[in-house]
Structures are given as structure tokens and as C-alpha cells.
């Protein structure tokens, strides 16, 4: 690969590969899998925008030639050195300076998995998203393939964790014209691609972000929703507004998993698998055991709990190794979903109890408000007695998100109000009994007998001494 070619608009003191106050370059297993499923050995490829170095080297090892378009001069020099044995060139500058005649014949594949927003620098004040898309489309050969990424400005990340630093200016927040922004939302983005002449666009929902693309899914439902929920929950371990795991699962169940994804991949001109990487979503029928048990808890279906828990415990005793969040229930059979977990039966049940309390799920038993009590009750359904010493005394599990915590407080306040009303009713009933004539007569008759009995006991004790 030749040394970097400066085409104009390059940024001399800036790096997208090693950012200081900016987001990293596009990367992740899903991005690697998408490229592996799309590229062919004889392809000429253009990679435009910030992409992780390992992603670029993976492409270079699969195709005949690869050209790079980056805006950072230090990144251009680094990548030219890294790919010194690769056929191709590095162009350093902004997309509006990348002339259509830079390469005759066009490219077989154009890769822009980071999106179109970071193809320009501060010197480009008026070059909109549509113009950047048109410039890249003009670089495609006849029948070429286009891979484009885009962030979702109103995805599940907005519901889970607000960007508290959004109002703080960053190094890359230079002035831009209002028309330079990308279309907001999945439908406007798809419409913009179709208006640019791209038909048959294949869309992937990317989780948890373009810079950390763990999975890319054509549909976010059933087990695919669980995989997406796990990916989002793994990168939101601190305080959150809402439980990230439950938000993604609920969005998928409502048919909004793709629309509310944190980001998207758009694939034009290629047939690729529905799930990337392949094999991360289990096949077959069934339901996640944890979801089935939580649904039974919410509707107080104790008969179903008493049917399923013993069957699950028997599966564990026969060699199964998975907690309810890692097991698929299919009728009366159980199978593992993910990696085995080396826990004993009580520890598997305790893990479910903790996750149920963290989700803010309703518990039908007032006495089972802590993990020990809930675990003991579930284990008792399978004939297992849980020793008290296995648990930390007074262990308190709070729901993950602020919204679930508020819902739990409201539910507990309602239960307390009902308990107080029952206590007042009971006190009134007892007071009424004490004021009744039969009670007073009985009290007058029995009271002297109690006094005589106590005195006789004292006399007998003295005699025995």
C-alpha cells in the first residue's frame, strides 16, 4: 500500500483510531461477520470513515485490493504502515474532496460501517448526509455492494441511560450547517437510501452500538431479543433509568426491537444471513425459562410454578447446568441457552430469585420479599429445604432501574395501605368484642379464678423450697 495521499480537508492533529474526547471507530464481532459474509476474494473495496484497525486488516486479508478514506493524517500514516504489503491506497481528507475520478471503474464494495457523519472535518461547513451518500454511490461499480452504518438518535440507549454529557462541548463538536444531519429514524433513513437509487435494502438492528457491534439482527424477537438484551445489559452495569435487559425484551415483544435499536446496518446488493455473527441465536421452539417463571409470578399462577420448578430441578439433577435465564423451556423439556454454569441447584434458584427482584417483578408472597425467602419457597416446591446459613442475613436486592424502583415503592405503599386497613378493621372487631356483654360476663367470672390460680402457684413454689 502506498503512503497516504492528501486530497484536502485532512485533519493534522486528530485521530479517530485513538480518540481523546470522541467516540471510537466502528468495530465488533458483528461488523467482522458482516464483512466476511459480503466480501469475495476478487473484490476491490473502499473503506470510508473510522474503522478499527483489526477490522481493516481483516478486510485486507479477504480481498484483492482495498483503499481507505480517512480524515485523520496520523491515522492515514499508521494504516499505510500497517497495510504496507496490501494492494491499495490511503486517501486522507474529507468526502467532499474525494473526487469521483480517483479510481476508474468504481469499487465492488463500499464499506461505511461507522456512518456518514465522520467523513468530513471542521473545514467542511456544508456537505449534507444525502450528498455524502451520493458521493459514495458514485464510487460503486455496476452491481456493487454498499454497507452503511447509522446511529439511532432515539434508541433504547435514550431510555436506559441518558447522555448527561450531551450538552458539554467536545473536541469534535465543531459547527455544522443544519442540513448536514442524517435523517432521524429507521423509515427516513431507508427512504433516503431508496431515493438515492438503492433498492432491496437489507436492514440489521445493531446492539449495543456501532463502535461495539456485538450482534446484528434482522429481527429482534424471541431468542434474538434475549441476545440483544444481554448485549445492552452488559454495557450498562451502573445506575440506569430503566432495567436495560427488560427494556430491550419488552421492545422486541412489542415489535419495536428494530426501530428502537441503538444503531443499524444497511446492506445493498448482497444476500447475507439474518443473524450476525451466525450461531449466537439458538434455533428451535420454546421460551426462556426465566420469562415463563416471571410471567407466572406476575399473574400469581402458583400451579404453573409448582409444575415447572420440579421439572427444572429434575433436569438440573440429571446433569443440566443452567440458571433460568440460560435455559429454554419447550413443553416439558429443557435445554441450555449459552454457556454452562457450574452452580448447584439452590444457587441456580437463588440466581433466579435475585434477578426477579432486580427486575422489580411482582411477588405473590408478602413473606418472599428477599432472595432467601423467595429461594426457599421455590426450592420447597421441589422438596428441597434451604439452610438459613447459606445466605447473607438481611440481604436486600433493589430493582435495577429507577423506574422499577419507583414502581416497587408504589406497590409496597399500596400493600402497606391495605395491611393498615386490615389492622384497623381487626382492632375495631376486637374492641367490639371486648365491649360485648358475653365477653364482660366471662371476664368477670374467669378473672377471680386466674387470681386464685396464680396465688396457689406461688404457695406451692414456697413449699417445694
What does this structure look like?
The chain is of the alpha/beta class. The strands form two sheets. A ten-stranded mixed beta sheet has the order 1-4-3-2-5-6-9-7-8-10, sandwiched between helices. Strand 5, helix 4 and strand 6 form a beta-alpha-beta unit. Helix 7 packs antiparallel against helix 8 and helix 11 crosses helix 12. The radius of gyration is 32 Å and the shape is elongated. The mean pLDDT is 86.
Quick one: biggest sheet? 10 strands, mixed
Order of helices and strands: EHEHEHEEHEHHEEHHEEEHHEEHHHH
Which secondary-structure class do the elements indicate? alpha/beta
Q: Count of helices?
A: 14
Mean pLDDT: 86
Q: Stretches where pLDDT falls below 50 for ≥5 residues?
A: none
Rg, Cα atoms, Å: 32 Å
Percent strand = 5-15%
Q: Oligomeric form of this entry?
A: single chain
Number of strands: 13
Strand order of the largest sheet: 1-4-3-2-5-6-9-7-8-10
Shape: elongated
Report helical residue fraction: 40-55%
Distance between the termini: 109 Å
Provide keyphrases for this structure.
10-stranded mixed beta sheet; alpha/beta; 465 residues; single chain
Amino acid at each position: 500500500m502506498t503512503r497516504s495521499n492528501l486530497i484536502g480537508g485532512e485533519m493534522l492533529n486528530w485521530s479517530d483510531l485513538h480518540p481523546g474526547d470522541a467516540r471510537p471507530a466502528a468495530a465488533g464481532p458483528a461488523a467482522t461477520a458482516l464483512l466476511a459474509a459480503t466480501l469475495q476474494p476478487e473484490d476491490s473495496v473502499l473503506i470510508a470513515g473510522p474503522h478499527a484497525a483489526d477490522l481493516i486488516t481483516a478486510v485486507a486479508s479477504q480481498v484483492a485490493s482495498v483503499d481507505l478514506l480517512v480524515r485523520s493524517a496520523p491515522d492515514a500514516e499508521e494504516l499505510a504502515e500497517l497495510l504496507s504489503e496490501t494492494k491499495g491506497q490511503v486517501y486522507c481528507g474529507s468526502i467532499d474532496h474525494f473526487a469521483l475520478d480517483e479510481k476508474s471503474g468504481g469499487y465492488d464494495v463500499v464499506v461505511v460501517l461507522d456512518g456518514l457523519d465522520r467523513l468530513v472535518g471542521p473545514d467542511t461547513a456544508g456537505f449534507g448526509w444525502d450528498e455524502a451518500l451520493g458521493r459514495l454511490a458514485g464510487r460503486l461499480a455496476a452491481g456493487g455492494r454498499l454497507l452503511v452504518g447509522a446511529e439511532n438518535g432515539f434508541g433504547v440507549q435514550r431510555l436506559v441511560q441518558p447522555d448527561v454529557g450531551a450538552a458539554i462541548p467536545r473536541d469534535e463538536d465543531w459547527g455544522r450547517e443544519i442540513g448536514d444531519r442524517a435523517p432521524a429514524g429507521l423509515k427516513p433513513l431507508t427512504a433516503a437510501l431508496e431515493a438515492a437509487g438503492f433498492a432491496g435494502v437489507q436492514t440489521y438492528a445493531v446492539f449495543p452500538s456501532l463502535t461495539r457491534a456485538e450482534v446484528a439482527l434482522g429481527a429482534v424477537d424471541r431468542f434474538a431479543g434475549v441476545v440483544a438484551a444481554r448485549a445492552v445489559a452488559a454495557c450498562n452495569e451502573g445506575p440506569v433509568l430503566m432495567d436495560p435487559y427488560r427494556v430491550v425484551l419488552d421492545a422486541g415483544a412489542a415489535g419495536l426491537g428494530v426501530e428502537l435499536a441503538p444503531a443499524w446496518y444497511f446492506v445493498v446488493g448482497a444476500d447475507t444471513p439474518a443473524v450476525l455473527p451466525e450461531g449466537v441465536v439458538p434455533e428451535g421452539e420454546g421460551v426462556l425459562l426465566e420469562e415463563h417463571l416471571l410471567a407466572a409470578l406476575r399473574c400469581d399462577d402458583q400451579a404453573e410454578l409448582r409444575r415447572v420448578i420440579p421439572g427444572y430441578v429434575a433436569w438440573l439433577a440429571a446433569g443440566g447446568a443452567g440458571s433460568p435465564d440460560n435455559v429454554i423451556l419447550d413443553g416439558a423439556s429443557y435445554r441450555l441457552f449459552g454457556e454452562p454454569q457450574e452452580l448447584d441447584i439452590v444457587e441456580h434458584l437463588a440466581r433466579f430469585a435475585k434477578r426477579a427482584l432486580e427486575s422489580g417483578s411482582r411477588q405473590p408472597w408478602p413473606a418472599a420479599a428477599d432472595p432467601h425467602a423467595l429461594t426457599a419457597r421455590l426450592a420447597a416446591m421441589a422438596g428441597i429445604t434451604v439452610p438459613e446459613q447459606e445466605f447473607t442475613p438481611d440481604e436486600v436486592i433493589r430493582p435495577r432501574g429507577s423506574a422499577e424502583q419507583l414502581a416497587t415503592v408504589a406497590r409496597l405503599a399500596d400493600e402497606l395501605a391495605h395491611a393498615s386497613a386490615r389492622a384497623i378493621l381487626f382492632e375495631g372487631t376486637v374492641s367490639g368484642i371486648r365491649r360485648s356483654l358475653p365477653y364482660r360476663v366471662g371476664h368477670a367470672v374467669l378473672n377471680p379464678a386466674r387470681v386464685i390460680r396464680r396465688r396457689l402457684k406461688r404457695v406451692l413454689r414456697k413449699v417445694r423450697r
